[in-house]
Amino acid sequence: MSTTIAFLGQFGDAVDFIFNERESPAGGAQVGGLGEIWELMWEHLKLSAAAMAIACVLSIPLGLWLGHIGKGGFLAINASNVGRAVPSLALIAFFVAYIGVGFTNLTLALVLLAIPPILTNAYTGVRQVERDTVDAARGMGMTGPQIVRRVELPLALPLIFGGIRISAVNVVATATIAPLAGVITLGDPIINVNTYGDEGRLAAAIVVALLAVATEVLLGLVQRAVTPKGLKLEAGGSARRLAIPIKRKEATT
Amino acid sequence: MSPLLAQVEIRERSDTCVADNGFCPDWIADNFDRYVDPFFQHVLLTVVAMAIGFAISFTLALIAYRKRWLINPVTQVTGILYTVPSIAAFFLLLPITGRGFLTATIALVSYVLLIIFRNVLTGLDNVPADIKDAGRGMGLTERQLLWRVEVPLALPEIMAGLRIAATTTVGLATLAFFAGAGGLGEQIFADITFKSNVVVAGVLAVLLAAILDGLILLAQRAVTPWTRAVASA
Questions:
Q1: Among B67, B114, B188, which would you mutate to test the A interface (most chain A Cβ atoms within 10 Å of its Cβ)?
Q2: Residue A177 to residue B84, Cβ atoms within 8 A
Q3: B92, B185, B210 ranked by CB distance to A85: nearest
Q4: pLDDT tens-digit profile of B167-192?
Q5: Which CATH number is B35-228's, of 1.10.3720.10, 2.40.30.170, 1.10.3660.10, 3.30.2130.10?
Q6: pLDDT for the residue A248
Q7: Option in A177, A206, A239 nearest B92 (CB)
């Protein structure tokens, strides 16, 4: 393996690190190989998934509710602006210094990071449902909760998933610096380069990059799958309509 | 002072507040100067990345506005660059461009391209057709129409994109020290368990984001006086 990809230079070495274990440059333990990469990735995914799950449970109902009653728009929209201004490294450092390290604490930090885009998009998703549609539903005798569940939620779903996608990619990226808070994710070879060596660090960078792109692509497919058929038809209608989803998405990028 | 030296020296244990790892205003006042250089490194990283990123994506957007088939490929390529975490991008670039400012800047630029591209294009697309017709009726050429009508009317969207890009870049630049480019992140990383240190460096980063955001907003007001005229009318 190592000879066939040697021409790739350092990138070849890094790929080799992913597939074959070797002795640590610091001596002693073996590092690298699919087993270890998988272990690090599993921790990475567990951390990201836990944070995303909690963030969704907290922010989707809140965003739907605020959107439904049409209040708290200032909070819902500005959450994203404030969230963006706080660097993820600063947030994690704050948790390390003031609250503590470990899986639970770090999950909480990532939840804070993940909430704003989902909250903003859930709110915006409900608000952009045409008032005529909601009035029609009310005229048909639907109650408030029914309107939320059967009208506003389905029509807001594409935007909600847009928010989930932004958050998920951000959380996967930020989980890379989790070893600073004592959680050994794919960022470990990046931060503890003495143990893993330069190839290990580059290998981790490659895997993290692929993981982020995979997250984006996968959630993009889910987003398309949950978009109601009617909305897809509408969006594909004419060139002018095309500009609108782009703009709406921008609200929280 | 080498980074290693800074790491060793950051906490003088003789101070009881510091030794107890409290939040120490005295320590901050005495040591504030160690944050000045990283702060300006941070400003430089952000501003240079924004300027280059804007130049590239604005040009791309103007071209794609006329040649619509370009929109999808440009969105997809910049979308991938946007998705690759910058911390990974730093190390992917390391074998090619080495440690330092260049590597950090390339990674930061690649991140802002999509944001600005999308907003410029949306801004141009949202210019009402009848306004463009009026411009053509007054005898403007396509080039004159672009620079005198379409770009000015797209400015609010363009500036909104710049604000998003600026605040995000400040955040990502805290990771630029991984590429050997310094910045406030280096100070955070130097002693991540020391409360006073984390707060000063973190607050400076948030402050920088807020200042840049405010400056772009002011610039937007200055270059789009008509939006206020409409609002107050």
A1: B188
A2: no
A3: B210
A4: 999 999 999 999 989 899 998 988 88
A5: 1.10.3720.10
A6: 39
A7: A206
Nearest in space to A112 (alpha carbons), one of A176, A54, A179: A54
Percent of the residues in chain A that have a pLDDT greater than 90, as a whole number = 52
Contact of A236 with chain B, judged by CB distance below 8 Å, is answered with no
Q: Is the ipTM reported for this complex over the cut 0.90? A: no
In chain A, where are the structural domains located?
A: 35-250
**Nearest-Cα residue of chain B relative to residue A166:** B83
Of A169, A168, A167, A157, nearest to A67 (Cα)? A157
The CATH superfamily of A35-250 is MetI-like (1.10.3720.10)
* Residues of chain A under the 70 pLDDT cut: 1-7, 233-253
| Dihedral of alpha carbons B177, B182, B185, B188, sign | positive
Within an 8 Å CB–CB cutoff, is residue B84 touching chain A? yes
Q: pTM value? A: 0.87
| Chain B hits for A175, Cβ within 8 Å | none
* pLDDT tens-digit map of A200-217: 899 999 999 999 999 999
Our CA-based measurement puts residue A211 at a distance from the nearest CA of chain B, in whole angstroms, of 9
Measured on CA atoms in the order A30, A33, A35, A36, is the torsion positive or negative? positive
Least confident range of A5-14, B36-45, B131-140: A5-14
Decide if A247 and B90 are in contact by the 8 Å CB cutoff: no
Alpha-carbon span B153 to A228, nearest angstrom = 33
Calpha distance B178→A127 (Å, rounded) = 41
A98 and B192: CB-CB below 8 Å? no
Whether the CB-CB separation of A107 and A54 falls below 8 Å is answered with: yes
Across the interface, whether the CB atoms of A87 and B170 are under 8 A apart is answered yes
